[in-house]
């Protein structure tokens, strides 16, 4: 193998390694966002359930009808 070919292969491997690291970082950030969204959804679900269990006032027509 020539020196130029080895250098080109080393550059390719270095770029791929950098790309893998960047993708890994993005994936980690996305999982953090997903976890936050899951917690928020669970919290909203609990609030909705608690609101549904509270007796709501009867719906009546306003006096001007």
Automatic annotation (TrEMBL):
* InterPro entries in alphabetical order: SlyX
Check the record and name the Gene3D superfamilies matching this protein: 1.20.5.300
Pfam families tied to this protein: SlyX
**Entry protein name:** Protein SlyX homolog
């Amino acid at each position: 193998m020539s020196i130029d070919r080895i250098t080109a292969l080393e550059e390719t491997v270095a770029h791929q390694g950098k790309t893998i690291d960047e993708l890994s970082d993005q994936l980690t950030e996305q999982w953090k966002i997903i976890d936050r969204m899951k917690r928020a959804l669970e919290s909203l679900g609990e609030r909705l359930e608690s609101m549904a269990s509270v007796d709501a006032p009867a719906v009546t027509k306003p006096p001007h009808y």
